[in-house]
Amino acid sequence: MELPSSAALSTLGLLTSTYIALRLTSFLSTYFLPSRLSTYRHQTRPSYALITGATAGIGFGLAEELCSRNYNVILHGRDRNKLLAAQSALKKTYPSVETRILVADAVNFDSSVDAMRELLAPLQDLHIPILINNVGGTGSTQPTPFQAFGKHTPAEIDGLISVNDRFATHLTLSMLPLLQKSAPALVMNMSSYAVAGVSHVAVYSGTKGYLSSWGAALRPELRVEGYNIDVMNIVVGAVKSQQNGGPPNLMTPSSRRMAQSIIDRIGCGKGTVVAYFPHALQMFFIGLLPNGLREWALARQTKTWYDTKAKEW
User: Rounded to whole angstroms, how far apart are CA atoms 111 and 95?
Assistant: First the structure.
């Protein structure tokens, strides 16, 4: 058998090296180029971002981060008192930024055209180029994000699907005319590393799978249908929360730190992106493991955590 010539091997090596260099440059540029939030800021009118699930966690962190960048926000939640408290906190820290609230239950809501039109009626005169579909949850009734599938009730499963998928889908549909009127516009969907399928959050994983696939399909569709609206799926890993105890650290950042990473990714040119750089590295190395080993390791880890927490209840 004739061996490849040294010239052919050199060419192959050069092409391989070039490909790796381009991939590495693309990866690094995602995390080290500045945010393009200004793309969605009107020159003369006040611009708003509507953030769902904005009274705590990443949602409130996103509101804080946007306000710190002098961007107005509309806070969504189901509890008016919590929304007013969040609004008051933002006004105290960022007095020059405008804030509004939008009260709606993301689990039990009327998705009819008339009901959604009534919900959004107070926003029709605003310039809203950014919609952040953040509201969601794992559906666990325990002080841990993990729960065995067999211990879910039918009502919990329906609630999970509503809060993670139905509300975002119906809200985005109803917001399309307003987003297009405010174009260029952006829809950001908060996805999760659980999209790959994580043990003891099976339903949650499925709902994030829907959200990611829906967003990935919607992005090119809106473009070819003539909308000037971009769609980004933001993949989020572990974040410090009430269910995820302990102080923030490199691999479990605070909600505000995660929010900063999310806003920094605006304009990176990717439809799906891992927001936080250490999580991107973590997911890259996890992805190198064989599928069977990865599934087994994640399942054992989540079950150990679940069993440990169960003893504390």
Answer: 35
